[in-house]
Amino acid sequence: MPPSKTPPGVSPAKQVASFIAKFDPAIAKLTRACRSKIRKRYPSAIELVYDNYNALAIGYSPTERTSDVVFSLAVYARGLNLYFMYGRSLPDPDGLLQGSGTQGAFIRLESVSTLDEAKVVELITRAVRRQRPTFAGKGRGYTVVKSISAKQRPRRTK
């Protein structure tokens, strides 16, 4: 397992807060609200954070392995997506999933309330149910900063 990219003396929570603060205030606020809602729903999930060139990705996984991420918040200068790592193989009778990838797919999060829409909740539930290994039934997850790209696209639109 590669070591965390969190420098000594800096908590992952503070580091992630600084990543989110790079975005326009409205995007940052939406990201914090969606992250909070997901943490409450899946308290044992491990957050895997990647401050990449194109986006900030906060993945939710039962392990520290990237391949075990069930879904993630993908934060861009122009908005926020709920990204399903294996979304193309998920049943999606309502056609909610977007994107042209052969593996992943996403839902645009216009507001935190999108996470409470019945069809979105069902899609998330399907993804969680089929995940192996599964989220722990009890316990508390934690945050691991997995990578920070030295070069990044602008995080603000202005």
Task: Provide the CATH topology.
Answer: Aspartate Aminotransferase, domain 1
Assembly status = single chain
Q: What is the second-level CATH architecture?
A: Alpha-Beta Complex
Q: How far is the N terminus from the C terminus?
A: 38 Å
CATH class: Alpha Beta
Strand content: 15-25%
**Are there runs of 5+ residues with pLDDT below 50, and where?**
none
> What's the overall geometry?
globular
Order of helical and strand elements: HHEEEEEHE
Radius of gyration (CA) equals 15 Å
What is the SS-derived class? alpha+beta
- For the report, how would you describe the main beta sheet? 6 strands, mixed
Question: Could you report the average pLDDT, rounded to the nearest whole number?
Answer: 89
Question: How helical, in percent, are the residues?
Answer: 25-40%
Please count the beta strands (DSSP E, at least 2 residues each).
Answer: 6
Contiguous helical run count? 3
Tally of discrete structural domains: 1
Name the strands of the widest sheet in spatial order.
Answer: 5-4-3-2-1-6
Describe this structure in words.
This protein is α+β, with helices and mostly antiparallel strands and 158 residues long. It has a single domain (12-148), classed as Alpha-Beta Complex (Aspartate Aminotransferase, domain 1). The protein contains three helices and six strands; from the N terminus they run ααβββββαβ. It has a six-stranded mixed sheet, with helices on one face. A hairpin with a 4-residue loop joins strand 1 and strand 2. It starts with 11 loop residues before the first helix and ends in a 10-residue tail after the last strand.
